[in-house]
Amino acid sequence: MQRGLRPKQWRYRVRRFPLLAPITAREIHARLLVGRHAEVLLPLLWHDSAASRFHEATRDIPCNVSETIVVGDLAQPICMSSPAFFEQFKTITGTSPLQYQKDLRLLRARDALRTTKAKVSEIALQVGYESSAQFSQEFSRKFGRSPRLDRKILVSSNSNMLQIRPKADLHCDR
């Protein structure tokens, strides 16, 4: 990241000049690995460490938020029992795998509410809810207001900054 540029400015440069994006990403990674978080991040680079194996098992959760998590399926490739994996997951994230997935779903849905004109029921289905009523209930519990009201407030408060895009892709770029 160039000295003197604010994050908004360098994000603009990365989008405007895509050839710079890999260089910028590498520089950010390098700065993280030599910074104050290096002690936590370096073990993830060691392919034989418990942290890297755990990362391998869980890295696709954010990409597949609409699919149901089965703890046994995540634990099996890294040779852990389901209870041991569950405890390790809870230690690392502070939440259970299902709660973690639910939070990711709700955050993705909130982002889609802000950036698309899709119906609330469509967004609920895209992020993995079978029922828009269940989605609305959990959304209200997490954010303190219904999805429709949240969209209305966010759009009206950010009307000069928000640009509504066509339907958002709710999946990772993998």
Itemize the secondary structure elements and their pairings:
Layout: H1 7-16, H2 21-34, H3 38-45, H4 50-58, H5 71-75, H6 82-93, H7 97-115, H8 120-126, H9 132-143, H10 147-157
Order of helices and strands: HHHHHHHHHH
The biggest sheet, with number of strands, parallel, antiparallel or mixed sense and barrel status, is:
none
Going by helix content, strand content and strand pairing, the class is: mainly alpha
Determine the oligomeric state from the structure. Answer: single chain
Distance between the termini: 24 Å
Low-confidence segments: 160-171
- Provide the helix percentage: 55-70%
Total strands: 0
Nearest-integer average pLDDT? 79
Give a description of the structure.
The chain is an all-alpha fold and 174 residues long. Helix content is 61%, strand content 0%. The chain contains ten helices and no strands. The two termini are 24 Å apart. The model is unreliable at 160-171 (pLDDT under 50).
